[in-house]
Amino acid sequence: MNAAPEKPVRQDDAERIVRAAVEDGRLPEPLALRLGASLQDAGVRQAILEGAAESKRRGKGDRVTVSRNVFIPLTNLCRDRCSYCTFAKPPDSPEARTYGLDEVAEVVRGGVHTGCTEALFCLGDKPEIAYRSHREWLRERGHRSTADYLVEACRVGFEGGLLPHTNAGILSADEMARLRAWNASMGLMLESTSRRLRGKGMAHQYAPDKEPAVRIRMHEEAGELRIPFTSGILLGIGENEAERVDTLLTIRSLADRFGHIQECIVQPFHPKPGTRMRYVAALPDEEVTAWIGLARLILGPEMNLQAPPNLAPEVLERLLRAGVNDWGGVSPVTVDFINPEAPWPTLVELRRRTEAAGQKLVERLPVYPEHLEQADFFEPRVREAALGLADEHGYARVSDSQEAA
Ligand code: SF4
Asked: Which pLDDT value is given to residue 405?
């Protein structure tokens, strides 16, 4: 990565650079680094936002997607201790919870009943390594690892009528291959390529699974296995501007090499009570939207760019103007267990605000049409099930009564 400080650009240079990027499709690396170093300038930010909106329009038209899902936090035990996390709990916490298969089946039934298509399995990273009680819990049920158990849970989700999408932290190639048998897509936020964040006092000091090289390798292995894959960047956890640009360029390179990156999430950090980073300020909204715009210009018009609507409810329209074309998963059944303090908007409200911003809300499956049309990305039975839930364009088939709900 280029470690030398970049020379900032002025507004007129930024306008010229952005215009060229929109015409050529994507920002070249040196110019991405220079724009990334210039976001304190309101004129530069404005140039980026205008270019990003045009790039999104060229790649996605007026379409903005959302996945109607259920969120299943299979276990909130985790061997890592990220400084900003409130999801992970130790086994002696009254809030520690691992779902039984009957509980998974019950949530899935609720999802099917409310027209969901996705079962989002989200869980802590390899808790069996840290906690003997969890190892015993798994052994009593005939499993040697959380990943083994997760395969079973995904089977229950799939057979119950939903399409699993798994986000389980670092998985081996063998584990991903076994999960692929029941999953439509999988994901791992790259978060950041900054190795500094693993240093003393930094956000990932106590999180071995946040080692960037390990996360990049898992992205590569998912590509080799032909798994539609969600990645993303976490903004504001101690990384600098050049490191943010490097993270986005790394995601672009992975997408180019393997063709499996189906979407990139841009997620801002928010300080939470009870965490080591509770006093660290979040990035201001205008910086978050500028980074979303820059992500659009770096990743290009075809990339699906996602921002969670519950983490910035005041500025949804500005997120759309910054080039976002996807709201991620929104559930009529379950809360966002990662950010339980941030309720999702209802789909009706999200549709109203998306349309008020001149865009059209379309429900999608956990996997996007671009990948659904490529059969080699799926276990045949999973693709068959996905096609059964899709309309003729590869988006989710939605009844009139669902649309109003
Ligand atoms: S790896 Fe994920 S669940 Fe575990 S502590 Fe970090 S953010 Fe929390």
From this structure: 60
